[in-house]
Amino acid sequence: MTTPLRIGKIRYLNCLPFFFGLEERLRQDGFEANFYESHPAAINQAMRDGAIDAAPMSSLEYLQHPDDYCLLHDLGIGARGFARSVVLISRKKIEQLDHAVIALSEESLSSAGLLRILLKQYYGLTNTYDSTEQDPEAMLRKYPAALLIGDGALFCQPKEMVYKYDLATLWQEWTGKPFVFAVWAARREFAEKNPQQARLLGTALSDTLTKNLEDPETLLKQALGIAPADKKFCQLLGYFVSLQFKLDAEMKDGLSRYFELAHKEGLAPAPQPLRNFA
Fold it and tell me: Which fold has domain 86-175?
């Protein structure tokens, strides 16, 4: 038996189409896997430290260290417009946030970078930021605006009246391009030493995704035990349909644009071509 694959698993619902049934699929192919489950920032750190071999990592983590990683099967998580789970909630209109201190979810990297770029380069604002625990009510008690991601953003219903801005929508309005929040990547060192495992993982991920998205209603029923009568059923069904899980040419173009703007903002090195594992 080969050494188990060490796979990072983001604990958000947007990763469900990749992971439901993945372990069984890998076992059928003769591979065992150990999963490290956490939020995006922790997954990024584990990849950086070499504690895991592959994961759906923040796109900005990949852009910051492109020589250390390689993309797997053009897979990721993005949106053409409305993302639903990456939002800025604010007690003021976004144009009124100049010189404000804004709370950033400590779970985020790509979205935090995106917000910095949007506020400075799109809106022309000057801001400072505090990374803090993702707690919408606590964040808004201390700050005029807060960045939320993942399930916490998707199901956020603040007690007070707030403005709510979908960051993928703002990006689309500004650049005309989709936004990529996460990419499936392997540590380059791992992929080069274990090419068979890297290829098999990429194929297994792609096949699992395709199978789950062919029937998202069954995915919700089997993976989450949610029936059509549940009030969250339609919300989650629409959520999965709105997300993009494959990096086609348009998605890659949006990622490359993010690379350029992140470099301009001092968040990433000079852009270079996106590289898959061959």
Answer: D-Maltodextrin-Binding Protein; domain 2 (3.40.190)
Q: Cβ of 247: how many Cβ atoms within 10 Å?
A: 25
Cα gap 109→41, rounded to integer Å:
6
* Cβ atoms of 238 and 231 closer than 8 Å: no
**Which of 38, 53, 59 is CA-nearest to residue 201?**
53
- Sequence length of the chain is 278
CA distance linking residue 251 with residue 78, whole number of Å: 8
Residue type, 72: L
Contact at 8 Å (CB) between 250 and 256? no
Question: What digits encode the pLDDT tens for the residues 172-188?
Answer: 999 999 999 999 999 99
Domain with CATH 3.40.190.10 in the chain: 5-78+179-264, 86-175
CATH class of 5-78+179-264: alpha beta
DSSP structure class, residue 120: I
- Is residue 186 within a helix (H) or strand (E), and if so which, with residue range? strand 179-187
Is there a contact between 131 and 143 (Cβ–Cβ < 8 Å)? Answer: no
How far apart (Å, rounded) are the C-alpha atoms in residues 71 and 62?
A: 9
pLDDT above 90: percentage of residues in the chain:
86
Going by C-beta distance under 8 Å and a sequence separation of 6 or more, which residues neighbour residue 142?
103, 132
* Percent of the residues in the chain that have a pLDDT greater than 70, as a whole number: 99
- What are the tens digits of pLDDT across the range 201-253? 999 999 999 999 999 989 999 999 998 888 889 889 999 989 999 999 999 99
How far apart CA 143 and CA 159 sit, in angstroms, is 15
Cα distances from 95 to residues 85, 125, 142, in angstroms, run 22, 8, 19
pLDDT at 278: 54
- Are 205 and 72 in contact by the 8 Å Cβ rule? The answer is yes
